[in-house]
Amino acid sequence: MKLFGYWRSSAAYRVRIALNLKKIDCELISIHLVKDGGQQHSQSYKELNPNELVPTLVDGEMSLNQSMAILDYLEQKYPDVALLPKGLEDNVKAKALAYDIACDIHPLNNLRVLSYLSNELNQEDAIKKQWYQHWVVVGFKALEASLARTKGLFCYGDEISWADICLIPQVYNAERFNVDMSQFPNIMEVTNRCRALPEFWAAAPEQQADAT
Amino acid sequence: MKLFGYWRSSAAYRVRIALNLKKIDCELISIHLVKDGGQQHSQSYKELNPNELVPTLVDGEMSLNQSMAILDYLEQKYPDVALLPKGLEDNVKAKALAYDIACDIHPLNNLRVLSYLSNELNQEDAIKKQWYQHWVVVGFKALEASLARTKGLFCYGDEISWADICLIPQVYNAERFNVDMSQFPNIMEVTNRCRALPEFWAAAPEQQADAT
């Protein structure tokens, strides 16, 4: 199994956490999103993933894009370490928290969007930072309220789920953009608990071979 | 079962299609995203969905947000009309196409983002349109290439899946913003096939009671 990713990609970071938690052996291959005008735009990578985004998982003959589809694949193929609750209501509610991040926060703040604000809309760095912080704070305020209802040791009850797997990379990103995280005590309680675990720690951007 | 939605919301539109295909009886309740400064921001709706977004599904005591989690709930609770392929690889690949839209296209172009461009970044309507078109065209170009590999009668093979359910609302939206869809023949072939089906037609924005 091979994961094409990038150290700072939140979406690749999610998959690295899941691989570690499920103890799946996987080769990590760096697609540098900045070098060479973005290696994700190369012809060979585009063949693998027409979206020209990371991550892409290759398992034998199959190549699969979209981090949430990859998490789903790993969940179905390697169910022993479950990363979703079993009961229907709990299952979909934990997923909803993950989508709160994957669909409503992250897509607005990834590298290509921030680049577009600079390069196409000629926005200054201060405006870019304001944009970033706006969408994270809007999203985290809602998530903070949701966690007050769902949180146990982790985002949804006492077991690690996709919600935590999506949350930790988003918090990493928010801190990079100097978002004041002290306004989100529920989020930070869960984050600190996850960060103390070796599976999360080893998946962190700074621990990756392509980190610069 | 009650679905809180809005006629023009792509995410609510997805759920309406799934409800129709699965023949599930569901009361549709309008949360007008523009009237009264946006009814999604009311205290009573915020209680139901802290994200202040539509849709929200209420089934008995349970309330669930995030359209992709709602599709999942319907899929697990009402499996008779399957909207995902059964085999693992096919299952996650169909989901990946749906996420191509739900995570990489739609979030950049929904109402709150376009409003932010106008109101906070003081961008003119022409720039807003350029923004909209840019992200749809980038996303649809990639999807067009993916469909060349996966398409049968529908986005993924010959059965309707989440990919079609996400695609039709996104095409509706793209046409509203005058995107030239003739550059995407695979997308339009599937779209026209879906639109001819009563379950898709009845879910369309113009058919909703709150359409104005």
Set down the secondary structure blueprint.
The structure is a homodimer of 212-residue chains.
Chain A lengths: L1 E4 L4 H12 L5 E4 L12 H6 L7 E4 L2 E4 L1 H11 L10 H17 L6 H9 L5 H26 L11 H15 L8 H11 L2 H4 L11
Parallel strand pairs in A: 1-2
Antiparallel strand pairs in A: 1-3, 3-4
Helix pairs in contact in A: 1-3, 1-7, 4-6, 4-7, 7-8
Task: Describe the fold and architecture.
The structure is a homodimer. By secondary structure, chain A is α+β, with helices and mostly antiparallel strands. Chain A has two domains: about 1-80, Glutaredoxin; about 90-200, Glutathione S-transferase Yfyf (Class Pi), Chain A, domain 2, CATH 1.20.1050.10. In chain A, about 50% of the residues lie in helices and about 10% in strands. The first copy, chain A, contains nine helices and four strands; from the N terminus they run βαβαββααααααα. Chain A has helices at about 10-20, 45-50, 65-75, 90-105, 110-120, 125-150, 160-175, 185-195, 200; strands spanning about 1-5, 25-30, 55-60, 60-65. In chain A, strands 2-1-3-4 form a four-stranded mixed beta sheet, with helices on one face. In chain A, β3 and β4 form a beta hairpin. In chain A, α1 (about 10-20) crosses α7 (about 160-175). The longest helix of chain A is centred in the middle third of the chain and has 26 residues, at about 125-150. Chain A starts with a strand and ends in an 11-residue tail after the last helix. The interface between A and B is large, with 45 and 45 residues.
